[in-house]
Amino acid sequence: MNDAESFWEGKRYLIVTDRSKPAIKLTIDELKKRGMSVQVLDIKDLGGSQVQAALEALSLPVEKVVIGITAMEPADIIQYLLGKGCKDIWVHWRTDTEKVREMSSGAAGHILTGRCPMLYLGNGSSIHGVHRLIARSFGKY
């Protein structure tokens, strides 16, 4: 089992979204369906100080964090979460930035980048199952 597969064996998740990645909604639904505890922080309509206040209101740390945002720099949220003891963080495919990639190489936690959660959570008959088959064929799973 690789790191990406074992990431989904947690029990308590925080999902940070701005609704720019449709697979994040599917990720939330799948985790809940599997009986996981899921906190969701939706920053879509929040300004900078409101995001900070929302972060401070969370019940932290959690075992696993999934971040799928494009409206602001995800590294800023990751830095806060690392400081609060969240050590296992997944940054959704095409939402990582240069700052996130730099953090992932030297962070105090474990930061996975470059993959869609539904590649691992989707079932075989969905578009995500097809995506998984293609990813495995090209050694990108």
Please identify the structural class as seen in this structure: alpha/beta
Number of domains: 1
Instruction: Report the count of strand segments.
Output: 5
Form type:
globular
What is the CA–CA distance across the termini? 11 Å
Question: Strand-residue fraction?
Answer: 15-25%
Roughly what is the average pLDDT, rounded to an integer? 87
The CATH H-level homologous superfamily: NAD(P)-binding Rossmann-like Domain
CATH class descriptor name = Alpha Beta
Number of helices in the DSSP assignment: 7
Low-confidence stretches: none
Secondary-structure element pattern, one letter each: HEHEHEHEHEHH
The gyration radius over C-alpha positions equals 14 Å
Describe the main β-sheet briefly: 5 strands, parallel
CATH architecture: 3-Layer(aba) Sandwich
Oligomeric state of the chains in view: single chain
What's the CATH topology name? Rossmann fold
Strand order in the largest sheet? 2-1-3-4-5
